[in-house]
Amino acid sequence: MRCIAEPAPAPAAPADAGGPPAVILRGFLPSDVGPISAIVAEALHEHYDPSLYASLSAEWPAGFLVAADPGGSPVGFLLGVTQVAGEARVLMFAVERDTRGSGVGSLLMDEFLERCRQRGFRRVTLEVRVSNVNAIRFYTRYRYSVIDLLRTYYSDGENGYHMAREP
């Protein structure tokens, strides 16, 4: 395995850490499809068939985490899947624009990695757009390392990085 980027130190508390963000972490609900689709379109620049979310949730319900505001509306989510034995994959991960920087992404990633440890996974992988500097910085704080360049990986032709870490 060739490593393109070295991992950074473990994540620190958010800069505005006056306490945890006012969200609850819960599993995916069918009523989340609309709000999650909107987050995906804005943050990930992708559009998926709405039935995909329920289908993937059914495969590993504990791997689909939703961060919801006090009213129950999703403000972020992490959709993890298991496609390779002993390995989890972050298939989609995004936080609503107005909520970014508040610690919601860290809450989602921390909980997901804990669930991966509990299941005994040896590795967690993800893909990220090469232009998404903020996401790459976030992932390297979580000790993800770039292991490959994925040429024209995204639907618009942009390259991606394949990143991995131990849970």
Structurally, the number of domains stands at 1
Main beta sheet: 7 strands, mixed
Compute the number of helices.
Answer: 4
CATH H-tier superfamily: Gcn5-related N-acetyltransferase (GNAT)
Please bin the fraction of helical residues. 25-40%
Summed up:
The protein has helices at residues 33-44, 51-59, 104-119, 133-141, and strands at 24-27, 64-68, 74-84, 87-95, 123-129, 145-150, 160-165. It has a seven-stranded mixed sheet with strand order 1-2-3-4-5-7-6, sandwiched between helices. It is an alpha+beta fold and 167 residues long.
Structural summary, described in words:
- The chain is of the alpha+beta class and 167 residues long.
- It has a single domain, classed as Gcn5-related N-acetyltransferase (GNAT) (Aminopeptidase), CATH 3.40.630.30.
- The chain contains four helices and seven strands, in the order βααβββαβαββ.
- Strands 1-2-3-4-5-7-6 form a seven-stranded mixed beta sheet, sandwiched between helices.
- The longest helix is centred in the C-terminal third of the chain and has 16 residues, at 104-119.
